[in-house]
Amino acid sequence: MQKGGFNFDLYQRNVELIEKNNYKVPKTTKTGTTIVGVVFSDGVVLGADTRATSGPIVADPNCEKIHRISDYIWCAGAGTAADTENTTGMISLQLELLSLSTGRSPRVRTALTLLKNFLFRYHGYISAALVLGGVDFTGPHLHMIHPHGSTSTLPYISMGSGSLAAMAVLETGYSSKMGEEDAKSLVHQAILSGILNDLGSGGNVDLCVIKHKSMEFFRNIDTTNSKRKFRKKLPYMFKSGSTKILEKEIEEKMRKMEIVNEKENAIEELEEL
Amino acid sequence: METYLGEKQQASQWSPYINNGGSCLAVAGDDFAVIASDTRMSLGYSIKTRYSTKYLKITEKCSIVSSGMQADIFTLHKVLKSRAQIYEQKHGKPMSTDAVAKLVSRLLYYRRFFPYYTFNIVAGIDDEGVGCVFSYDAIGTLERVKYSASGSGSSLIEPVLDNQVALKNRNDIKKEDFKLTKEYAIDLVKDAITSAGERDIYTGDFVEISVIDINGTHEEKFELRFD
Asked: Known PROSITE patterns for this protein (chain B) (predicted)?
């Protein structure tokens, strides 16, 4: 019995289906994405945009890309939306169980190892590119994880389709002596750069600041790019009957009332009220 | 080419065509026409420029918008502009909208075996003063319609126009009772292309909208989202 890892049994069948039977492979919702992480003196700042795309269409204009692994370990994800959500969800559960069984608060490098081993087993078929950041008792940590399972530990990271636009900003503005406000502002600018210059990224800016035993999540800290510029004054009106009524079924929501006590002139008394 | 596992790998061949994205639409009323296009030019996931015009005013009574490959749009518009000028100088009067429509169709079919990668819409006022919209495919099939949308956002815009202009799938209002006014059409066009900008990543930045009626052409520009 196969213990784990990817099962390639259906590979031949899939190839034949696509080639001979004209099977259309379903489109996965990718997050397009710009995600960023920066280490500063007291901790880590994570940033992400909020656009999820399905091909050239925006599937979700305001989704959440920064996922909770543990209270002070958070992870931003790019790639296939289902993959990033389920992978971070699973590792979050595993980390909680591990921290309960060891009796110790979870470490960022533990989450890193769990994530990289999981993704490596699937040889890149799970399309999750992650920026993992957090503060544990050994200090602040920031890592990048590629879908195939390789990792890097760096002071500043960007991933996703908007990573080049974001990295341009990070390379210009990063300094090892940054404080919290500088780091927040740098991450904000990097995500904005991705939102404006990359078509796979857009919407609002999400920020997450993690310090020792403290976490602040700024959901939609910047919404200037997601405002609709024009709206018709007259609303779209559809009177009842616009869509042809084929069947009508009316359900009675009120139970039938029983007359328990009849009073003379009761109706006149009610009208006076 | 076959790999050692026996699978066939498709060699990617060079293509002379690229799609620069963008959306166009036009709506015709009883005595006017509204035509609009966005101005974003994209390549892959990048924006090449936020302002690259897809609109050309051919005569005071007729304009064209095109979506597709910017290089072919530019060339087609250049050729069209010069042909319209030649006609006006030869005949002593500007081209009628029907003539422009036919000319575009012939120019496109001339390149039947190496087409212009353009999806065009011509709109204007015909000889009787009635608004008209002509829509084309890449090789010049001509059809006169009441409204049309083309480009990356066309599948988002066309259903809205079907419902609001042609009153399709609506039992609350009858065609005889509905009059498409200029203000309503302008608002609808602006709303439709703004909505396309919300959900289509290739539509955005700016919109060039122009209203054509018996008095001439009135051009306007407004902003869309930049993300």
From this structure: PROTEASOME_BETA_1, PROTEASOME_BETA_2
